[in-house]
Fold:
Amino acid sequence: MNQISVIVQNNPPQGQHDRSLPTRLLELFRAGAQSDTALPFTHQAQAFHRVLNNEQLFLVAGTASGKTLAIGAPLFYKLEDGEIRKVLLMYPTVALLEDQKRVMQQLARASQLDNQIGQLQGGMSRSKLVENLNKKVLLSTPDEIYWFFRKNVKYNALLIYGLCQVDEFVLDEAHLFNGLMLRNFEHLWQRIKTMAGCLDKSPRLHILTATPTADLQRLNRAESIRGNSKCYDVNVSFRPSGRFDRDKQIVEAINEVLNAGQRKVLVVCNSARMTHQLFEKYKVENATSIPVEHRLKFGKVKLGDLIAWLEKAGIEKELIDELNEQLFREEDLVLDDAPAGTPIKVSLQDVVAQTTEVLERQCWRVKRAVWEQSQQKGETWESLLKNRPLPCGIISAVRERLKQATEVEKQQAIVDEWLSDTIERLGNVADVPIECEAKEFIALTNAFVAIGVDRQLALQLTKRLRYEIKIDSTQLPARKLSHRIVYLRWLDWLVEKDKANRLREAVKIGLESGELETECRHIGLWKGTDVPVIVYSGSMAKHAREGLINVFSDLERAVLISTSAVEVGVDFHADVLITEECEGNSFLQRFGRVGRHGTNSMVITLVGGDAFSKLNALDGKEISRSDFSERMTQIFPMRNYAASSPLLDASHYLVNEQLGRIGARLNESFQEDAKAMAKKLRAADIQLNYGLRSTMPQIALSDGVTKDPFYLLRYVDNEHLRPADSPFEVARAKVWFTGLIFQKAKFDAIVNLDDTLKASQHLFVLYHGRLEFVTRNGIGDFHARNLLSSGTMNKNNPLYFLLLQGDVYLSRIDREISNEEYVTDDEQNPLFIPNQTYLVMFGWSDAEETRRLLTAAKVVDWEELHYDWDRFKLDSNKAMVILEDTTGACFAAYKELVEYVGRQIQN
Structure:
C-alpha cells in the first residue's frame, strides 16, 4: 500500500507531590479526577499556584492534559473558602459546555456547592435569567452572552449587573477564537472589565488553549504554563487520496482496522453530507448489540408492536389506553394537515399566541420599511415591503394615521400601538374554542374580522396560521396508527412518573428477551459486521445528538462517524482515528482523541497529492509529539482570517452607546478612527449586524438544523421554502437535513446582482484613509450604470470596488439547463438576506483572474467571507460579489483591495 508511516512519541506528564498545596484543594482535585490517589501533573500544580495567588492563567496544553481540573479545582477551592463569590466559564461550543458541566458538577458536589451551577443561554425568561445569575458557578458560550445584547436589549442591565459580580472568567479552547471572532471577544472582555470596574471589581481572565498565539496572549498578558498530554505513542499513516474516491477509501480503512481487531474507531469527515452518507449507506438496522439502557434512550418501535408487547407483559388496559391517548395528542400536526371538510376546534389561547408571534415579526418589517421610506422619499411602503401581503395589509390598516405623523419614531409607535391593540382585542374574545372547518378555516378568518381586522389581512393571517397552529390529532378522522413510530424515551413524559417507570420496566424486559425489537435512529451495525456504528454531527438537532458519545464510550466495540463537531466538546477516546486532511489545528484536535489508553493506537489520514509529497520526508521516522504538531501546522493548510476591521470596532462603539454612562466610559478607550466612523454610521442611521461569529442569517430546516442559504438552496426547490419573518433567518425549509444527503445538487445559488443593486441603500467609500457614506435608494445600481456606461473600463481603479449595504436578493442556476431563476418561497415572495454589507468588484468577470487579485491582495479564502464563485458560470456575469459571514469582514477586504490596487497604480 502506498503510504507514509510515522511513529509519534509522547512524553507524558508526571504526577507530583506538592506539599505546599492546601490539603483541601487536593481533595477537590481527586474528587474531580474520581481517584483517591491521583496527583496533579506539574502543569496542573503550577496552575493551582497561579490561581491561588490571584494571578491570571494562560495554560497551553492539548487534549488529555487535565486542563479542566487545572482551573476547576482551585476555583472551587476559592469559592468554598469564600475568597471569591462567582466564576463564569465560557466554552466555544455548547457541546463542550455540556461535557464540562459534568466535571463541574462533580467538583460542586465535593465542595458542597451542589445547587450552585447555572447556565446562561439565549431565549431565557427574565425569571430564569435571574435564577441562573444568582448561582456561584456560571457556564455559557460567548455567543449566548452576545445573544442578550443582540436580541434582548431589555435584559442588558440585568445581565450587566450579573456579569459585574463575577470574580474570575475562564475561556476554554481559546484557540478556536480567530480573526474577527477574537476581535469581537476582545470587545466583550473589555466591556465586562469596564463594567466591573464601576463596582470597584477587577475580574481575572484565565485562558486555556492547545495552540498559543500572540493575539490570545494579548487578552490577559499572563506568562504561559505548558503541559503535556497523558498519552502513549501513536502509529500514524498518511495515504494519498483524491476528492472523488475518498469515501471509498474511508470505508476500506474502516473494514481494515475492524478486521485487525481494533475496538474503538473514530472517523472524522470534513462535511456533514459525507458523514451522513457513509452512515446511511453502510449501517444495518440491528440494535441487538446495543445495551438496553441505550436502546431505551435512542430506540424506536412501531406503536402496534409496543402495545402488543405491553398487553402480553400484563400492563392493564387503562394504562395502555392512557398511553395511546397521549401519543395521539403528541402527534405533531398543524391545521393544514387536516383533511378538507374536517371540523376542528381551535383553542383561542393558541390563536392569540401564534398570532402574536406572526404579527410581531411582520410589524418589525413594517417599522423597518417606515424608516427606509424616510430615507428614500420616492419609494412607497409597499414597494419597500416587496408587496408582501401580510405586512402590506398592516400598512393598509394604519395608512391614514401614518400619513398624519411626520416623524419616523411616531410612525413606528403607531405600528406598535396597532399591534398591541389588535392582540388585546383578540385576547378579550370569549375564551371558547373557535369551531372551524378545514381547509379554509373561515370561522378563524371571521374571528379576526370581528375584532376589526380587514378581511383581506384576516385571510392572509389565517393562511399563515394554518402552518403554525398545532392541533390535537384526536380531532381528526379515525386512522390506524399501528405503523406509527414511537421513540421509547417518550415514555418518561407521556404518563406520570410511577406509571412511566412500570412501562419502562416492561419494555426493558421485552428488549432483553428479544420479544420487543427496536431500531435506533442514529445507531446501527456496520455492514458485514456485528460492530455498532454511530453518527454524530453538527447537522443533527441538539436533542438528537445528546448522549450518542456516551454510547460510543460505553460500547466494547464501535465505529463513530462524525464531523469536526467532535474536535472539541466531548471528552472521549478512540483506538483508531480515520480522518480527511484538514486545517492543521483541527487535525491536531482530532489526533488528540487517540493514544490515551494503550500503545496500539493508530491514525490513518487521507491527504491530497501536495500534502503527501511534503510528508514524504517523515516516512519511517520516530518523532516527538511536539515536533509532529509543529510539522502538521506547517504542512496542512491554515485557515485565513481577517485580522481586524475598523467597521467592526465602530459597531461596538455604537453598542456601547446603548449602555448609558458605562458605555460612554467604555468608548473613551476607542481609537479616533473608530469613533469618527461610529458617529458617521449613527448620523446615517446605518444598522450593522451584531454577533460574535457568523452574522449571516440562515435557513431553518424542519429538524431544527440551520444551514447557510448558499449551501441549502442547491437542493431545495421554491415550493419547499416557507417565509421566515425573523431578521435572523432567510427562510424555513419544509425538509429534513437527512432527507437531502443523497440528493444531487440541482442548482448553484448565487446573488441576484441586478435586484441587489437596486435594493442597496448605502455606499461606503474609502477616501484618503477615511470612510465616507452615501445614502440613496439604489445607490449601487446608480454607480454600476455609470461605471458600465463610461466606455473606458479600468477594473483596477479603486472606484470599481463598491462596498454597499442593503438586502441581498438570491437567484440560482439550474445545473441542467444553465438558466438563472429567482429564488422565492412557496408564497412567491422573493428570497433575500436582509440588511447585509457586501462588496461588488465590477469588471472582474473571470474567475482565475479574480482569484489572482484576491490572492495578491491577501484577501482570498477568508473564513469570515462568502465568495460568490458560482456566478462566473453565467455568461452575463458583470462582477464578482463577496458577502460577509461576520460583520466588518467586507470592509476589511475592501480596504485591503483598495490599498493594493492603489500601490499598483503608483508603481
The longest strand covers residues 801-814. The mean pLDDT is 87. Residues 335-475 form one domain.
